[in-house]
Amino acid sequence: MAWSSEKMNLPSHTADTGHTRLNELGYKQELKRDLSMLSNFAFSFSIISVLTGITTLYNTGLNFGGPVSLVYGWLIAGAFTMFVGLSMAEICSSYPTSGGLYYWSAKLAGPNWAPFASWITGWFNIVGQWAVTTSIDFSLAQMIQVIILLSTGGKNGGGYEASKYVVIGLHGGILLLHALINSLSISVLSFFGQLAAAWNLVGVMVLMILIPSVTTERASAKFVFTHFNTDNGDGIGNKAYIFVLGLLMSQYTLTGYDASAHMTEETKNADKNGPKGIISSIGISIIFGWGYLLGITFAVTNIPYLLSEDNDAGGYAIAEIFYMAFKNRYGSGVGGIVCLGVVAVAIFFCGMSSVTSNSRMAYAFSRDGAMPFSSLWHKVNKQEVPINAVWFSAFISFCMALTYLGSEVAFQAMVSIATIGLYIAYALPIFLRVTLARKSFVPGPFNLGSYGILIGWISVLWVATISVLFSLPVAYPITSETLNYTPVAVCGLLVLTGSSWILSARHWFEGPITNINS
User: InterPro entries in the record, alphabetically (predicted)?
Assistant: First the structure.
């Protein structure tokens, strides 16, 4: 049975501490343990990818509050995200397995509640991850579309505007490439992961200096640090409400760092390096992301024009900023298009790492029998890669994107699960850690000491707060087109996971199953 109480045996120096701990938790080593702390960090850092999140959702921040919500909202969301990351890192240190969050929930809920807690956490985690991959690769497809539009003359110069079918076709092609790359061995993926992290770091540094340097009209420091944009055209006038809606960009960007936990069975000394991966990826992302935001915002002078669908980039604010910066100075926007190419490569790496993380979660969840056709998804090939889980995850992400063909509103609801669904999965084990397991939790090498409970509660309350805030209407009057479907999507997921538990899973799902003796 999975619930024998385990002692924290101290391993000898010769054994890998993560490997030893995995065996203590009842799992045998099936994946290749080849990642350094740097590689573990690289996966999470390239999924957070400030170039991806900020570039794609800069319009949201610009529309709701402008510079103030971008510059200060980032720091607020960053600080609270760090609390969530610290709480997750502490739990990860004690339970370094690929299952990550759902395994933690099972262990922290205690024998009676374990199966239910891990079922709910696991499904929110995996669906949230698939939604993240969907939205990352979809934003890359849109970025490629904008690059093509600007390269063929821009919207006002007769440029080519791709139909939604072309965008979905691009999205499918990108996912296919990501599945192919993820079919390679972990040592090759590790190289790509480190390349991705380096690309993100260098890309941010180059763009945050280059764009404000090239632009002919720069914003004043007063504008960047104090201008609050209330003109959103969505019928919302309350400043606090506007600021809250502008936070979405920051919080959407700062997700995905659970990848460090999902990669722990492939990371050396994972009980120490997994937590380091989580914390360092968040910390470095906050610093570099803020630099990138400041650099770009210094090139903003006319907010309504940047958001207008009649500009050359068709209303894609950052694309227009890059394009016009070079066009106004050099008479040609080619330099701006190259800069967008730099961002596109970062988004490509981001999606690649996201599929890696998805597949490890699917591998672990099916190893414990939670998914339909479980025996298929946790098969590992000769390179020790969960190959079926890789292709399955890419396929599901493609299916989720197909909702875009039906309605953009339905697609936005799918994507909203990427932020809220994933954060609910982050908060559940933390909530169990500060409630049911308050006395029984045995910390690993990385722990928060007496601050663990306080930081845990702050994390849980922050997730509860953003879950409510991001469910608020984003435009008035409310119609079927302007309704925020986030609560519908999240509640729909809750109803599905809850009813499947009541009707079926409670009879057979036991939570994490040890396999060391099999």
Answer: AA/rel_permease1 (IPR002293), AA_permease (IPR004756), Amino_acid_permease_CS (IPR004840)
Give CA–CA dist 121/101, Å, rounded: 7
**Largest pairwise CA distance in the chain:** 71
**For 242, how many CA atoms within 13 A lie in the half-sphere containing its CB?**
21
pTM comes to 0.90
Pairwise CA distance, residues 156 & 149, whole Å: 10
The model's pLDDT over 4-17, given as tens digits with 9 standing for 90+, comes to: 333 344 333 347 88
319-330 pLDDT, tens digit per residue, is 999 999 999 999
- Residues 6 or more apart in contact with residue 200 via CB below 8 angstroms: 45, 46, 49, 50, 51, 288, 346, 349
Q: 3-class DSSP state for residue 240?
A: helix
Give the burial string for 447-460 (b: 16+ CB within 10 Å, else e). bbeeebeebbbbbb
108 with 281: CB under 8 angstroms?
no
Mean pLDDT over 303-321 rounds to 93
Q: Are 390 and 179 in contact (CB under 8 A)?
A: yes
Please tell me whether the peptide bond between 477 and the residue prior to it is cis, using omega within 30 degrees of 0.
yes
Alpha carbon of residue 146 to chain centroid: 23
pLDDT bracket for residue 518 (50, 70, 90): low
Distance CA 137, CA 119 (A): 27
Q: SS3 string of 292-341?
A: HHHHHHCCCCCHHHHHCCCCCCCCCHHHHHHHHHHHHHHCCCHHHHHHHH
Contact 234, 76 (CB under 8 A): no
Tens-place pLDDT, residues 33-84 = 888 898 899 888 988 999 999 998 899 899 999 999 999 999 999 999 999 9
Cα separation, 143 vs 171, whole angstroms: 11
In sequence order, what DSSP letters do the residues of 150-195 get, joined into one string? HHTT-GGGT-----HHHHHHHHHHHHHHHHHHTTS-HHHHHHHHHH
Residues 6 or more apart whose CB falls under 8 angstroms from that of 221 comprise none
Least confident segment among 1-10, 24-33, 455-464: 1-10
The identity of residue 68, as a single letter, is: V
Instruction: Give just the sign of the alpha carbon dihedral 105, 111, 115, 117.
Output: negative
For the chain, helix (H) and strand (E) counts, in that order, are 20, 0
Measured between alpha carbons, how far is 370 from 99 in angstroms, rounded to an integer? 11
